[in-house]
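Chapter summary example: a protein plus magnesium ion.
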Amino acid sequence: MNMRSIRVLLLAASAVALSSCSINIGARDDKAPPPPVAVAPPPAPVVAKPGPEDDPRLLATLYMQQAEELRRLSKQAYALAAVRLPAALKKPGSSALEQTDGGKGKPPAAIFDVDETVLDNSPHQARAILSGTRNFDLGQWDEWVGERAATPMAGAVDFVKELRRNKVRVVYITNRECRPRATNPGDPCPQHADTLANLNAVGLGPVAPEDLMLKGQNGWPSDKAPRRQEVIKTHRIIMSFGDQFSDMMSVTRKDDSATRARIAAAHEDLWNTRWIVIPNPTYGQWVDVLPEPISGSLRTK
Ligand SMILES: [Mg+2]
C-alpha cells in the first residue's frame, strides 16, 4: 500500500466517523424540545405626540393674551412713564449710556423697542404652539410680520401721543430683521414697510421712515448701541422703553442671570427715572441665558 492509498483510507475513515457523529447529535436533538416558533415582537407602545397642552410656552402666551393682569401691568408701565415724562424733559441727562455728554442743547427723543414693547405678537406665538413648531421659525415669523396685524400693547398708543404733544421725537429701534422675501423681489427690507404700516395702523405713528431702524438696515447689528449712536447725533434721548434689557443697554447672551442683575443694579438711577420695562413672559434673554435643562434653574427656597 503506497502513501496515496493510505491517505484515501484515512479520509474514508474520517468521513465515517463524522457521519456517525452527526447521527448521534441527531439522536440527541430528537429528545430536545422543539425549537421555539418565531414570534413577532410586541408592537411599540403608542406614545402620544406632544400637543399644545405640553408646549412650555402655553401658559406665558395665554397670560399675554388672556390675563387682564398683563394688560394692567402694561398700562401701569406707560402711566408711570407719563408721570416721569415732565422730569425727564426738564432735568439734564440722557437715558442712553452712549450719550456721555447728556445731549445738552439737543431736542428730545424717546427710543422704543417694537416687539412686545409697543406691538403684541402673541398670535404668532399662539400659531407656533398650535402647529407644533417648537423652535423659532423665521419663515412663520416673516409671514406674521408681512400680515401687519400686530395689535398695540396696552397704554402704548396714549403715551406715544403724549410724547408727540410734547414735541418729543419717537424712534423705534427693533431687531425685526431685513431679509429679502420672494413676494417682494428687489426690496432688500420689506419688513421695514410692513412694520411702518403696522405701527401707523394702530395709532403709534405717524412714523417717518428714518424713525424706524431695523436690524440689518445700513449693516446695523443686533446690538442696538450703533442705532442709538445715530439718534444721539442730533437728539437728547430722554427715555427708553423695552421688554428686554438690551433695549436699554448692551448686554450679551454670555451674561448669566447673576451678571445681568449686577449690571442692572449699577444703573438704579436710570431704572427709576428714564428706563421703562414692559413685561414679557413669553420669550427673551431672561430665559435664553438659563442653562439647559431650564428646570435646573428653579429655586426651591
Ligand atoms: Mg422686544
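Key point: The first helix runs from residue 3 to 31.
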